[in-house]
Amino acid sequence: MFIASSGTLLGSKELPHFSFHFIRLNGSDKTPPRSSAFTEMEYFSGSLAFITLFLLNTAICETTCGFAACPAPKLNMINVHLVPHSHDDVGWLKTVDQYYYGSQNKIQHAGVQYILDTVVEELLKDSKRRFIQVETFFFAKWYSEQSETVQRAVKKLVAEGRLEFAGGAWSMNDEATVHYQSVIDQFNLGLRYLKETFGDCGRPTVGWQIDPFGHSREMASIFAQMAFNGEFFARMDYVDKKKRMLELEMEMIWQSSESLKSSNIFTGMLYNHYSAPPGFCFDINCEDAPIIDGESYDNNVDARVSDFIDYVKNMSKSYRSTHIMVPMGDDFQYEDAAVNFKNMDKLIKYVNDRQSEGSQVNVFYSTPSCYLYELHQLRQTWPNKTEDFFPYSSDSHSYWTGYFTSRPTQKRFHRDGNHFFQTVKQLSVLANLSDTQDLEDLDNLSQAMGIMQHHDAVTGTEKQAVASDYDRMLYKAIVGAENSARDALRSLTNLTSGEFESCLELNISVCALTQNTANNVLVTLVNPLAHSSTQYVRIPAKNENYLVTDEKGREVFSEVVPVPWQVLALEHRPNDTQHELVFKASVDKIANFLIRVLPSPKNMAEDQVYFPVERDQQESQELTVETSLAKLTFDTTTGGLKTVEMNGITENIEQSFGIYKGYRGNNGESKNRSSGAYVFRPVGDIEILNNKLELSFYNGSRVKEVHQHVNEWISQVIRIYEDVNRVEFEWLVGPIPTDDEVGKEIVTRFSSNISSMGKFYTDSNGRELLERERNQREHFVPDMSEAISGNYYPVTGQISLQDEQKRITLLNDRAQGGSSLKDGELELMLHRRLLNDDAFGVGEALNETQYGTGLIARGKISLILDAASGKPNQRLVQHQLDQHFWKFFSKSNGVASVNRHLIPDFYDFPKSVELLSLEPYSKDQILMRVENFNTEGNVVSFNIYPLFESLDGDQIWETTLDGNMLLEDVKRFKFTQDGSGTIPSSAEYYYAPHNPLSANSTMNASAFVVTLVPMQIRTFIIQQKYISS
């Protein structure tokens, strides 16, 4: 039986607006301890009974989600929106499963399944209560385990706006080290799940990025392109925050793109992190006093209410409007939600009771979307923001710029995962895969990649055991999705029994299928790009005489290049293959190349083309290495790079490696902050490694390589290819020595004579470039007590500097920290190994080891020297490097052919337009995204009807960026900027930025024209024609 708190028995009437108590057999109204199996069973039986009664006694009313479900504020009062929430990291100190199931509580007490259990139960007790859920991964896992009865109750809560989703992606992604392609994918995944489960009521309208360590402009742009009304976060440089609090600029309008119109989005900074007000944490894991009312000597209502009202009044002094938002939650809170809600109920009641005594504070349960709705209705003006919120500093010695580089091999694995994910998605569409297992494998990889975007995953700020679990999870998902790729390629080629294996250790020149011999090995190259591409392909091989042929049996020129001895010396690397076979391949979408070993001995005379440089330096102190497009000069007295000539430009460019020594402190106060997983804090200046480098030179026909040995743990290959106008630097760093008890952070630096005037450019999540100025910020004067780390920025794809004549651009293969600390200089941090924690929560030093010694990392940087004209723009090159040919390997006695009638035609795409996504969306539906990679210039137009037709399209319609909302339905809040001169007479909105495309197969091809302005992405769903099996 359930009794209302007034004592009234519940009949078949609508659920009243007051709370309930369980009447249990043991007389207790508390959640039983989980150590008792019997009481736990009794508890959940009681919960189910309550939910069943709730559903029986309440009509399934019409949907009232959205702003119709928002509470009504009061005029002439400070309206306080209490937002109950729980911040649930998708891995950090514990693995994702440990967090979900509540195991390993000796590390951290947290169990997400119990949070959702009790939150739902408490929401059902009172229709005024609210809660926001953010991480869709956890929610989807929990929801799948619930009974139909519980699921019905949850759907009712969502339909009535009482349980609301904010953010809604698979995880709360980082904003510094993620790539925009992966962020879009994980929002597609999360928002599609919410749409399929709850319909329109499940779609979030605000971003809730409360924990990432700084905020990117591109993330704001993604929210705007998904038609979100605004976003909120909780971290900002402490100097910036102080200034904004004084100047009433905690909330602003962020111009999230220089290229896209209608890109402004409301952005709000939370007052007290994302925590409840000090003293008002009512969670079972807190020690703050509950609200004690009734006839008790300890009654504290007056004191507690006065404290809260004082807090609200002080808080309101930092905000412009009569509405303020107060989060009520923190990490993994609400595991016993009855405690939280019971005390919040009392807080609301007694604070509002003070209104009869003249108080002007009005408190109610709310959500971020309802709060933003009220701000929008006010039609007041807001300050403007144009750049981003990097770097983030929490005090004068704590710049959170170390995580830009932390765990470099995991950051590369994350990028590899995205590369393979895009490849398999395209193959699945081309082969029209419909097998349940194939689709499940693809979905598993999608979920793994969604988890990897989490702000404690790709960032490298998790415990080592959790990092290992992330790697295990992503590796397992990649291996599973290889089956989908194999099934697709068996359909798309005539090699119906091909292995089509991927080799995930090509970065150290290892592949199981070529380990014994590369004879009769078929290499299938898949090009994820829309346009035909020509690239050099490298295959681990033995030093033998090879013949490479294409599908038509034509010989393709190839050469054998030695693997650097430092790579061969890697522990646990099988050394069967000590060379790489290199050939140049042109691929439209899929192409096959057969490798055979010829019986005659190879007349390579390797010692004539690969030798220590000293052998050839009798007169000159320079080594010149050149192709038709690039020329490099090395100083043989130092072994270092001296000049670069390409694109008609010559510049003195010296490259070096350097060490920053990590500060070791006790973290007791800011001046004793250690360098750690989050924080980059060097001791003193950089130590440049200026010892003479040992050089070896490979003088091939199409590829030229200079192998540099810096010291026993740093080496490098500098490489140029014929017909390629960039220089490739393939670095090998580690194990970083710590015998001297000093942690070290390793950088590579490029120095030139370019007069950059303190300015340089870095990309935002792989998209638009932002201009940076040394020691400067957009809105405030920063605290530069840490002048090195305070000038570091996230570099996801490129960093550049220029003067009026020349420009240098560096393109990297993973997220890294980078800067320009002097004019003409660019540096990227490659690797970090530290001996102290920085005391920001992870609880262990960033000291990665493997095989009993420090971790070794290998990666690539590409350098482009060209003439300066406008802003740098190497986005197409960057995308081509990110999405290079994926290699699949099979054993075959002959060259396989591609079933070209199954491959769509992308020839109508303009040169600047690329295929960002091509993937299965749902049954008989395909999602496609196209992007204009130009950052400036005119619009481009093309017709997608040939592609639509080749994909058996029946209908096509346009959606928001995530793919889950019709573009024609966009109606997004528009706010007015300070200084605009006019105040609108009514609330304003942004609508679709152009006329959305909507067409079907009966219409003329002219209906299928797509126009793209610079930097624009357009997203389409193609409904395929139904073909009966």
From TrEMBL:
GO terms for biological process: mannose metabolic process. Binds 1 zinc ion per subunit. SMART domains: Alpha-mann_mid (SM00872). It holds the Pfam family Glyco_hydro_38C. One of its GO terms (molecular function) is metal ion binding. Its EC number is 3.2.1.-. Gene3D superfamilies: 2.60.40.1360, Glycoside hydrolase 38, N terminal domain (3.20.110.10), Glycoside hydrolase family 38, central domain (1.20.1270.50), Golgi alpha-mannosidase II (2.60.40.1180), Golgi alpha-mannosidase II, domain 4 (2.70.98.30). It catalyses: Hydrolysis of terminal, non-reducing alpha-D-mannose residues in alpha-D-mannosides. Residues 398-474 form the Glycoside hydrolase family 38 central domain. Keywords: Disulfide bond, Glycoprotein, Glycosidase, Hydrolase, Metal-binding, Zinc. This is Alpha-mannosidase. It comes from Drosophila yakuba (Fruit fly). The gene is Dyak\GE13604.
